[in-house]
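Students often ask what a holo structure prediction actually looks like on paper. The answer is less mysterious than it sounds. You provide the chain, you provide the ligand, and the output is a string of discrete structure tokens encoding the 3D arrangement of the protein together with flavin-adenine dinucleotide.
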Amino acid sequence: MTGSILAGEGESQVTASQQAQTYYRATMRPFDPLPPLEGRHEARVAIVGGGYAGVCLALGLAERGVRGVVLLEREGIGHGASGRNGGFVFGGYSLGEDALLKQLGFDRARRLYGATTEAVDLIRRRITKYAIECDAIDAGVIWANWFRDPSILRARQQLLKETYGVEWEWLPEPQLRNVIHSQRYHDALLERNALHLHPLDYLHGMLRAAQGQGVSFHEHSHVLQVERDGAEWRVRTGAGEVKAQTVVLACGGYLAHLQPQVDRAVLPIATYVMATEPLGERLRECLHTEAAIYDTRFAFDYYRPLKDTRLLWGGRISIRNRSAQAVKKLLLRDLLRVFPQLEGVKINYAWSGLMSYARHQMPQLGTRGDGLWWMQAFGGHGTAPTCAAGELLADAIAHNDETWREFAPFGLQSARRPLGYLGAQAQYWWLEAKDRWKAMLEG
Ligand SMILES: Cc1cc2nc3c(=O)[nH]c(=O)nc-3n(C[C@H](O)[C@H](O)[C@H](O)COP(=O)(O)OP(=O)(O)OC[C@H]3O[C@@H](n4cnc5c(N)ncnc54)[C@H](O)[C@@H]3O)c2cc1C
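The corresponding structure tokens follow.
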């Protein structure tokens, strides 16, 4: 896994300090390093993994008055997907709303979907309450139709309204072209209850809020072993250990290698992001909206304007980790297909990140009933679901609440690595080819 920045040909303006960083690391607000775990400690809850999942849970526990919470992160906080994602905050899961309804029926599907729209609200409230400076832009998310056929938009709009009680606004093509200056799209839906933000600053802000309420955080604290010790758990790093009643594994696609059953249940899948140079007035040649945007293909582009007039651009899903140079090449081609007016634009940053996918494409929240919990498999749609999951597990641990069992149908089924990778790549190519074929037929 690389998180490297490229310094490509003709990009001498990329300074050495920008190298080996994502745009987010390069531009994050000051954040003091956290000490590695050293020596022996006692805790009520030990959380492994310093991404959104772990930090949301830590904050949720602190807000419920649980004391003695320790979080251990192998690298730096936000080293994984949470510090390098697209920054979209919106409702739903990687599993589409249609499949969710078919699998769970009206009431349960509605409750699970509702947990993510409530999470979007909670994220907003926390940003305000804890004064988290994270460049949040509360302008919604546009789902732009790559195809002429509007039926896909109509079907989703209707399903969201009738099943989930959520209204996505129709943007007819002429209106859309006034805000996205691209010939690529035909009509769109606007999800108003959505925002975008600087993921690393958001994560650091939540961490500070939890720290202020007594949670201890340790970076560069690689958990090497989690083992039973009487009625408790012993969590061991190279330099220290924590004895805790409850342990929560929140390691995403950056596999922890601690519990085979938990590790085996996810497939780490890469996706790519880049940031252009500041565009100044040129940004206006592309966008007259502050909303974040993605499109209706299976392998969609996702992008958003940044406050310093760059365009942050993401896309592709792969089982392959690519170099920053290769990411740039691929994504620049995608960007110019949508905005040919940006020909010649320089790309200052490009990186990749790993998402954790379950075969059922839903988050996995659960416990063996012996104090060991897991929260993982948030896929490519994790910002709101990790917040929702943090709330459910915090309620479970603090108050023995059982609502987390809504996720019980989505268990730890094996992701069948390494064969699962081939299956995922084949499915990706197949669905991508189908989209290309459809676009070709439409002319
Ligand atoms: C490029 C990219 C773009 C995305 N865009 C979006 C988006 O726009 N909107 C959205 O909603 N979702 C998006 N996602 C998905 C979202 O980022 C993830 O679903 C979410 O961040 C998952 O959080 P997590 O805490 O489960 O995992 P992670 O953030 O990956 O955190 C897991 C952490 O566990 C640590 N760890 C692993 N093993 C150990 C160990 N043994 N000891 C200690 N620590 C350990 C890792 O170092 C890592 O920091 C994107 C993902 C990627 C990769």
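The radius of gyration is 21 Å.
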